[in-house]
Structure formats: C-alpha cells, structure tokens
Amino acid sequence: MIIKCSYTNLVEVGELVPNPNNPNTHSKEQIALLAKILKIQGFRQAIVVSKRSGFIVKGHGRLEAAKLAGFEKVPVDEQEYLTEAEEWSDMIADNRIAELSERDNTKLKDLIEQLDTGENDLDLTGYDQSSLSFLMSQFHVENENTETSEVELEDLETKHKCPKCGFEFDKPV
Known about the structure:
Layout: E1 9-12, H1 28-41, E2 47-50, E3 56-58, H2 60-69, E4 73-79, H3 84-99, H4 105-115, H5 129-137, H6 150-157, E5 159-161, E6 168-170
Parallel strand pairs: 2-4
Antiparallel strand pairs: 1-4, 2-3, 5-6
Helix pairs in contact: 1-2
C-alpha cells in the first residue's frame, strides 16, 4: 500500500465504523475504479474519523475501495468534533461542496488529450473508457467563418448528462 498523505494512525479496515447516517452511496463501478486508483497512486487523502463518535466522517468510499483492493490497514486522520451537528455538517459538506463545482469541459478534454499518449492509464482520471469516449466525442472546433443560428445557440446552451458517470456535457452542434 502506498500512502502519500498525512494521517494520525494506520487502522485495520475491520475496526472502522461507517457513519449510519451517511446519505451518500457508492456504486460497484465507482468503488472498483477507486480501488484501482488506490492500488496504483496510493492514498492521497486519509479517511477522517471522529474522535467524538468513532464514526467515519469522510472516506466511506475509500474504505470500501481499500477492502476491495485487499488492504488490511488504511491511513486515518482522527479529528475532534465538538457536537454531533458539527460532525454531520462536515460529512454532508464534504460531498456537497464537490457537487457544486463546475467543469470547463474544453480544458478537461485538452488535459485528457495530453495524457492520452498510450503511456498513461486513463482510468486513473476517474473516467472509464465509455465515459472518456463520450467526452472526447462531444467537442470539436467550430469553423470561425460559420454563422450560428438562434436555434443552434439554444442547442449550445442545452446540457447533456452522461448516464454512466453523471458528467454534464454541452450538447454537440
């Protein structure tokens, strides 16, 4: 196991207790992809456990992925929470804040194209092959001399959501 983050302790996976109030779930595909990333790149973020309750606050998916990867121990960052409300708020915010981010799909495509040399495992980006193919087919450079109609402009503003990964793309023109 590779660890590239700070942590308080290495803890046996069987000793960790998921928070029963965690509203997030993780698909088998997500856990398998995360397990692959952990095996190759290691832990870059410890699992956060509350000293107050003993429950996991952040890292439920990492724990499941570590189990799937066959790890016996995981890095844990034990943190103080004064109240149950503070602990739950941090758990909810950890997932929600990431959902609120916006992607520049053109930059994402450019980065993936730079990584796609044949030497890099693109699964380590968090996108499976199907999602990558979909992403890469959604963008092309417009001929600067073409005029765009109002209907085409409306189409550009329409979003499409990938059914596999939930990634939002601009509708192709």
